From TrEMBL:
<feature type="domain" description="Aminotransferase class I/classII large">
    <location>
        <begin position="28"/>
        <end position="378"/>
    </location>
</feature>
<dbReference type="InterPro" id="IPR015422">
    <property type="entry name" value="PyrdxlP-dep_Trfase_small"/>
</dbReference>
<keyword id="KW-0663">Pyridoxal phosphate</keyword>
<dbReference type="GO" id="GO:0016212">
    <property type="term" value="F:kynurenine-oxoglutarate transaminase activity"/>
</dbReference>
<dbReference type="GO" id="GO:0005737">
    <property type="term" value="C:cytoplasm"/>
</dbReference>
<protein>
    <submittedName>
        <fullName>Methionine aminotransferase</fullName>
        <ecNumber>2.6.1.88</ecNumber>
    </submittedName>
</protein>
<dbReference type="InterPro" id="IPR051326">
    <property type="entry name" value="Kynurenine-oxoglutarate_AT"/>
</dbReference>
<keyword id="KW-0032">Aminotransferase</keyword>
<dbReference type="InterPro" id="IPR004839">
    <property type="entry name" value="Aminotransferase_I/II_large"/>
</dbReference>
<dbReference type="InterPro" id="IPR015424">
    <property type="entry name" value="PyrdxlP-dep_Trfase"/>
</dbReference>
<dbReference type="GO" id="GO:0030170">
    <property type="term" value="F:pyridoxal phosphate binding"/>
</dbReference>
<keyword id="KW-0808">Transferase</keyword>
<dbReference type="InterPro" id="IPR015421">
    <property type="entry name" value="PyrdxlP-dep_Trfase_major"/>
</dbReference>
<dbReference type="Pfam" id="PF00155">
    <property type="entry name" value="Aminotran_1_2"/>
</dbReference>
<comment type="similarity">
    <text>Belongs to the class-I pyridoxal-phosphate-dependent aminotransferase family.</text>
</comment>
<dbReference type="GO" id="GO:0010326">
    <property type="term" value="F:methionine-oxo-acid transaminase activity"/>
</dbReference>
Length: 381
């Protein structure tokens, strides 16, 4: 065997893969990985089929079909009052994760520092390290996981090149507030710092709260990559469709990388989504759809011995088991999967140092009968 000098020597199989595999092996209800257990719209599937039958089966333009980019531009203006040029400022990607990786690749160079907030979605740090960048992580504490902006100011240095935000946040379900936006704006003003805003759960914001997209704020928009996912919007995570918004000078660099990663994205799906997005109710109704699931799941969990943490957005509910057992969250997640038949994600997996606050994450993007069955099993814990 030829020796391999690994670029990610500390990286193994993701916790999502591990827990989903254990769930399948044990026949447990899989509330670990974030995907629905119900079908996406038959109408949308029919539109994809029609696009295939009509011959839309060859490469799309590198940046994506113009018809889809125009629909995204219209949607973004309608929601956030932001004008993005579909020709130069919107690119269709193979899911949100590809958009995130591409944005990091486009602007991060060796020794550049990137600030991330933990618990953090697990694709950020590896991408930074692959580019030779330095991860500066700031650990947030339960139950509210609020960002201590005074600490962020202390982390800023002459080498700080990017701040990565995630709102609504995976795994915690927290959202940025207007006060957070004001703090962020003051910090980056007159600084050469980019923002990468992971907004794949943009439509999953509850209780009448506002999604504070970077697109809303011109001073932030001019320095931001915004990653968005169609998979979360259309309940079809396996399609791996998303897009990136960025000002033209950043999108130019983004596309230099994008063209050599995937070149272009699934053509018939782009044709279908462009048509499907014309119906605003597709995304305007999503918040109430998932809030009903959140409320139903929380009501069921309130009868268990777990302590519910706040959930303002996303389709994840975190629970604390502090005081119930001294087990590590990784061990308890495995035991509950094997003994009680419900798979979760231990939140320590989202910390660089595997910080264990004795918290598990459950996905509630499931049918009501699935959630009820899971709750019945968790009541026995």
């Amino acid at each position: 065997m030829i020796p391999v000098n690994s670029k990610l020597p500390q990286t193994g199989t993701t916790i999502f893969t591990v827990m989903s595999a254990l769930s399948a092996e044990t026949g447990a209800i899989n509330l670990s990985q974030g995907f629905p257990d119900y079908d996406c719209s038959p109408e949308l599937v029919g539109m994809v089929n029609k696009a295939m039958q009509n011959g839309h089966n060859q490469y799309a333009p590198m940046a994506g079909l113009m018809s889809l980019r125009e629909q995204i531009a219209a949607k973004t203006e309608r929601l956030y009052g932001a004008n993005y040029n579909p020709d130069t400022e919107i690119t269709i990607t193979a899911g949100g994760t590809q958009a995130i990786f591409t944005a990091i690749s486009a602007v991060i160079n060796p020794t550049d520092e990137v600030i991330i907030f933990e618990p953090a979605y697990d694709c950020y740090a590896p991408a930074i390290k692959l580019m030779g960048g330095l991860v500066k992580s700031l650990a947030l504490d339960p139950p509210d996981y609020r960002i201590p902006w005074d600490m962020v100011k202390r982390l800023i240095s002459a080498r700080t090149k990017m701040i990565i935000l995630n709102t609504p946040q995976n795994p915690t379900g927290t959202i940025l507030t207007k006060a957070d936006i004001d703090e962020l704006t003051a910090i980056v003003r007159n600084q050469d710092i980019f923002i990468l805003s992971d907004e794949v759960y943009e439509h999953l914001v509850y209780d009448g709260e506002t999604h504070h997209s970077m697109a809303r704020y011109p001073e932030l928009r001019e320095r931001s990559f915004i990653a968005v996912s169609f998979g979360k919007l259309f309940h079809n995570t396996g399609w791996k469709m998303g897009y990136c918004l960025a000002p033209a000078y950043l999108m130019q660099e983004f596309r230099k990388i994008h063209q050599y990663l995937v070149f272009s994205v699934n053509t018939p799906m782009q044709v279908a989504i462009a048509e499907y997005l014309k119906d605003e109710s597709v995304y305007l109704s999503l918040s109430s759809f998932f809030q009903q699931k959140r409320d139903h799941f929380r009501e069921g969990l309130s009868g268990t011995r777990f302590k519910l943490l706040p959930c303002q957005g996303s389709y994840f509910q975190c629970v604390s088991y502090q005081g119930l057992t001294d087990e590590k969250d990784t061990d308890l997640a495995v035991r509950i999967t094997k003994e009680f038949g419900v798979a979760s994600i231990p939140v320590s997996a989202f910390y660089t140092k595997a910080t264990d606050h004795q918290i598990l994450r459950f996905c509630f993007a499931k049918r009501q009968e699935t959630l009820d069955k899971a709750v019945d099993r968790l009541l026995k814990f």
